[in-house]
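Lab notebook, bench 4. Still working through the backlog of constructs that have no structural model yet. Next entry is a single chain of 105 residues. Request: give me the structure tokens for it.
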Amino acid sequence: MPAATDKFGMHCAAAVATDLEVVLLALISDVARNYCFIRPLDNGKRVIEATIALRRGAVRLQETRNQAGIIRMRIFCARSKLAQLEGSRFLACRSAILWYLARAC
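Model written out:
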């Protein structure tokens, strides 16, 4: 009788180890998938932030020119482009997250 118990115990231990491996593999897979989703978002965010910084510099330049009386109309264009870009930063992030959540369901 002890031999049967030992075999049963070994099978149970093997089943638990297999279940643990399956759970671990699923967890690793989820982490990898989420990393692959978040990485491009981070890169896109950096690009948008750098572009916003450049646009802010363009606005400052146009404001300086405007104060000097050199150019008057371009300041409105520069401010408009900056505002559009700042608004799109939020929308781009929001749409990417909604797309990911829709795919996950």
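Notes after review: The longest helix spans residues 2-68. The mean pLDDT is 79. Flag for follow-up if needed.
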